[in-house]
Design brief:
Layout lengths: L1 E3 L2 E2 L2 H5 L8 H10 L4 E3 L2 H23 L3 E2 L12 E3 L5 E3 L5 H10 L5 E2 L1 H17 L1 H7 L4 E2 L10 E5 L9 E5 L12 E6 L4 E4 L3 E4 H9 L11 E9 L1 H15 L6
Parallel strand pairs: 1-3, 4-7
Antiparallel strand pairs: 1-2, 5-6, 6-8, 9-14, 10-11, 10-14, 11-12, 12-13
Helix pairs in contact: 3-5, 3-8, 4-5, 5-6, 6-8
Protein name: Protein-glutamine gamma-glutamyltransferase
EC number: 2.3.2.13
GO molecular function: protein-glutamine gamma-glutamyltransferase activity
Length: about 260
């Protein structure tokens, strides 16, 4: 259910509002029909979340098409024009490089990059935020981007919710493989973006339905395994309300005041 200032919003009210993006209608429908209550301070805040969720899907599909490879931390690689590869397999932004430019390069020159699935999720979220608020705002908010695992700026919070079968397009879900083969520990699970129509994007596995993700992970179980991989009930998602307020507040702080 969607509420504005704790007042329920009808389908007709939503349809009369302006929401842009290829997947916005599907996202709105899921939020509206969800058993949980999603409360917003304004239509603008609701639009922010819907827009960013839409761009999360777009970024996931573009990363899939980018030719960026899957690799464990030891075998990570990056475009050294923008990043320095650290000893732990992370990407440290080079001095003088705009953060948004470096993030965008991953999508434009994917064949120069290799990383694991958690790093891919953060890359997707950063890219979606750039497309939601603009590159210039992102650069001001997050000047020191470092990509490694789930590492991210402290002012880019991610929350975990129990969705119990009611994930929303743009959520990050996790497929767990409890009997993973110890020879392939990287397949102990797969972080995946929830896409429309029952599909998921997982870096290294691609765009698949849930049962196909599970089949792929089951191929990497130990000998004698008795437990199947499965989709967990939790979902990770950006703390949209915080990002909405933070981006607006910092943008207003950095805008020059008008002459009187």
């Amino acid at each position: 259910m969607i509420t504005i200032h704790h007042q329920p919003i009808s389908s007709s009210q939503l349809s009369s509002s302006q929401f842009h993006g290829q997947y916005s209608d599907s996202i709105l429908q899921q939020l509206h029909n969800h058993p949980a209550v999603f409360n917003y301070s304004s239509y603008e805040e609701l639009n922010f979340e819907v827009t960013m969720r839409n761009y999360i899907v777009v970024a996931a599909l573009n990363l899939y098409q980018s030719k960026a490879s899957f690799a464990t931390f030891y075998y990570s690689r990056c475009n050294e024009r923008y990043w320095r590869l650290t000893n732990e397999g992370g990407f440290e932004l080079k001095s003088g490089v705009r953060p948004s430019q470096a993030i965008n390069d991953i999508f434009q020159n994917g064949d120069k990059y290799a990383f694991e699935c958690a790093t891919a999720m953060v890359i997707i979220l950063y890219k979606a935020f750039i497309d939601t608020v603009s590159a210039s705002v992102f650069d001001r908010l997050y000047p020191d981007v470092y990509l490694w695992d789930w590492n991210r700026d402290s002012n880019f919070p991610i929350i975990t919710e129990n969705v119990d079968g009611h994930g929303i397009i743009g959520d990050i879900r996790y497929f767990k493989n409890p009997d993973v083969n110890p020879r392939t520990p990287q397949w102990q699970g797969e972080n995946a973006i929830e896409l429309p129509n029952g599909y998921y994007y997982g870096h290294g596995l691609g765009v698949l339905r849930a049962e196909q993700m599970i089949e792929e992970l089951n191929e990497n179980r130990r000998v004698g395994a008795t437990r199947s991989a499965y989709l967990m009930n939790d979902a990770n998602r950006p703390y949209f309300a915080f990002l909405f307020r933070y981006s607006r507040q910092r943008y207003m702080e950095t805008e020059p005041s008008s002459a009187v």
